Automatic annotation (TrEMBL):
NCBIfam families associated with the record: pept_deformyl, PRK00150.1-3
Active site: 148
Keywords: Hydrolase, Iron, Metal-binding, Protein biosynthesis
Catalysed conversion reaction: N-terminal N-formyl-L-methionyl-[peptide] + H2O = N-terminal L-methionyl-[peptide] + formate
Protein's job: Removes the formyl group from the N-terminal Met of newly synthesized proteins. Requires at least a dipeptide for an efficient rate of reaction. N-terminal L-methionine is a prerequisite for activity but the enzyme has broad specificity at other positions.
Family annotation (Pfam families): Pep_deformylase
InterPro entries for this protein: Peptide_deformylase, Peptide_deformylase_sf
Binding site for Fe cation: 105, 147, 151
Gene: def
Protein name: Peptide deformylase
Organism: Flavobacterium micromati
Transmembrane segments: none
Origin: domain of life: Bacteria
Biological process (GO), any one: translation
């Protein structure tokens, strides 16, 4: 089921997500709905706060990034096959020289900014079986994970840009809060009832 995406300004996007247990009600259905919602909005990642749930859950599918002609065959293949659910994620390490990439967010439509992030991460998480894993990820996959991980920590990519850039996008952010924005997917706005 495709759910509305929560827009910038809603307090749920600023909450630190709570840990999930295997008994969490309708978890498999929630995860399936998150993938449906993400694909409908042409996203590569979606975190539970973006559908109104303050829990430690996000989903990723980097397939759309695999079309980038600047990537080598190995990178394209890796991005093409990366689809994963992260439950109760905990960042262990972020390493390497920070690099910039132009990021956007389904909760903040029509806003894109360059964000610096580390190229390599070590993260502990569970998939749907709740078995704890620790893995290292690099490059664009690491970046998408970091972006979604920030969501479950109550952090948005706009928190990572300069004060000047924040001032320049203030009007766009205010319009999102008030629901004065249009996109092809359903949204729910804090200052207005969504469509």
């Amino acid at each position: 089921m495709i759910l509305p995406i929560i827009g910038y300004g809603d307090p749920v996007l600023r909450k630190t997500g709570e840990l999930l247990t295997p008994e969490y009600p309708n978890l498999k259905e929630t995860i399936a709905n998150m993938y449906d919602t993400m694909y409908n909005a042409c996203g590569v990642g979606l975190a539970a706060p973006q559908i109104g749930l303050a829990v430690r859950l996000f989903v990723i599918d980097t397939t759309p990034f695999s079309d980038d002609e600047e990537l080598n065959d190995a990178e394209q293949k890796q991005l093409q096959s990366f689809k994963k659910t992260f439950i109760n994620a905990k960042m262990i390490k972020e390493e390497g020289v920070e690099w910039t990439f132009n990021e956007g967010c389904l909760s903040i439509p029509d806003v894109r900014e360059d964000v610096y992030r580390n190229p390599s991460i070590t993260i502990e998480y569970c998939e749907e079986d709740f078995v704890i894993k620790t893995e290292v990820f690099d490059g664009l996959i690491a970046r998408v994970i970091q972006h979604e991980y920030d969501h479950i920590e109550g952090i948005l990519f706009t928190d990572k840009i300069s004060s000047l850039k924040k001032r320049l996008i203030q009007k766009k952010l205010k319009n999102i809060i008030e629901g004065k924005t249009f996109q092809e997917y359903r949204m729910r706005f804090f200052g207005k009832k969504g469509r």
